[in-house]
Amino acid sequence: MFNLSTVNGVNPMDVPASGPEDLIPLDEKWRQVVAVLDFAFQPIVNYYSGSIYAVEALVRNSAEAGFRGIFDMFDQAYRDGVLYSFDLALRDRAVGKFSELPFHSRIKLFYNYDPRVHEMPDYSFGHTERILDSYGVSYDSLCFELSEQHRISSVGVFGDFIAKTRGRGFKIAMDDFGAGFAGYELFYHSEPDFLKVDRFLISGIDSDMKKKTFCSYIIGLAKFLGVVVIAEGIETESEFLACRDLGFDLMQGYFVSRPVTDMSCIQEDYQCVRSAIIMKRRGPDAGRDLIGREIMYLDPISVNDPVEILFKRFNRNSEFNFFPVLDTHGMPLGIIHERSIKKYIYSPFGYDLLHNTSVTESISTFIETCPVVDESMSQEKILEIVANSPELDGVIVTSELKYRGFLSARSILKILNESNLAYAREVNPLTKLPGNILISRYITDSMQTGAKYSIFFYFDFNNFKPFNDKYGFRKGDRVIMLFADILQKEMGSSGYFIGHVGGDDFFAACSSSVDDVDVHIQKAVKISKAFSESVTAFYDRKDIESGYYLSVNRSGVMKRYPLLSVSSAVLRVSPRTVSEAELSDRLAEVKGRAKLDPENLAYLDLVSS
Fold this sequence. Notes:
By secondary structure, this protein is α/β, with parallel strands linked by helices. The strands form 5 sheets. An 8-stranded mixed beta barrel has the order 1-2-3-4-5-6-7-8, surrounded by 5 helices. A 5-stranded mixed sheet has the order 16-17-15-20-21, sandwiched between helices.
């Protein structure tokens, strides 16, 4: 349990500390344990470039030290009353090893934090700073990972711990989000800089619409609060690309690299990520161009700047009433708004009060959260994050988590209006489904994806022209709308892309990581059956009873036609193995076979052929 109570009547966070050369001594048993233990480091990378952003320190050799596992080891240290001194020794080992990286000054170190250290009688405040100083590692390079494994016992005391930790310059990450029931409570109270989404929600996310929906909601909430979101446990390229498309900021997992104890194995850039992104990179994005044109650069403030800089900024610049704040790595921390310091600006003693460290310790006192988005994100994702918050000044825009500029609320509304007009030109005016341009864009992307398979559907009505000729275009349009509604019902919430080619031709597709193609074939059968049963509402009773209707054919001759049905063509391919032109030819081929099939269904497998 989080229990940051006082020790012997003194708040442990206020006790001065000595340097790492005078770490709290351990008894012989625990010194031997520390001597056996080692740290492996697992890289956390930027999803868009493959460049390393951080490493997570993971304890190794707990079994060799005589414990059933890592948790068992820390629990025993807690029971023995040495958890704090033991953790300090490990912290020193981790920071020392981290400092061996030649590029450590440009990345962060994630360290798993056990809050039970505050219950130890030997806890004293300040050792971490001394450790970092001794190895030349900046304070904001260190990020403490908190887990919901240890519940909050006192919200007030926990909040004080968070505030002081952040005030000391350290970052805070919430680990394993989505793995248990207390996650949102810890998220709410910790206000982390980073949110690590648990492997449970990442595993198989490329083919699991429910997980995509959960993660999309989590990402939207985190972005709104200015929190960087990390996908943990990515093992496949398909999972990586799905997480990238959802808007995760950073990635960690076996797909990038396993944890390594040899520091020379840690790279500044990971080619597997670059290769995946190059293959998946989209073509020109008009929406992104709109965003790029609207970004304005507001001169930021450093979190380490003296407080009096706020007076100069707000007194000299009347155009803006807020400024972004960055850490020493160029990462946005939020904004400082004029309203936060108004009482100082307009007070005759305001300057003196701000300069008094007993009143305001640093600029961080005034930082407010602000949504943060990456310029590479799709405009739809950016607008989704901020659309329901009209009171926002705007959003901070980053490039690979470094400050890029600011997108004002007015600019967001302008982009929203222009994008709606652009989208309206690319959807079918009758069904409002994506038209040929968006269908073509989807096919291009799917041919470059890392998914195991792509499944394509082509639906075409049988004898639709004679129906139109007899019953009129108005009923014909209503039949088209009926089929569009059936597609939406059967496929719209299951991860399928649905498009309207034109007239009575429809397109659908999805990515799949499983071999069971029968699921998709049965989906097409169900759609066809639902249409045949529902379309009877548009016929005269006599035609329904006879099972056919009379209409003039193309030669002007009266002919008997069966009631409307739909032909379904299903095609399975492995992405990157066929060209778009070949895909189009094969879809036309299987569509022709479906027209001739007694069940109006044809399937072609290009994977096994």
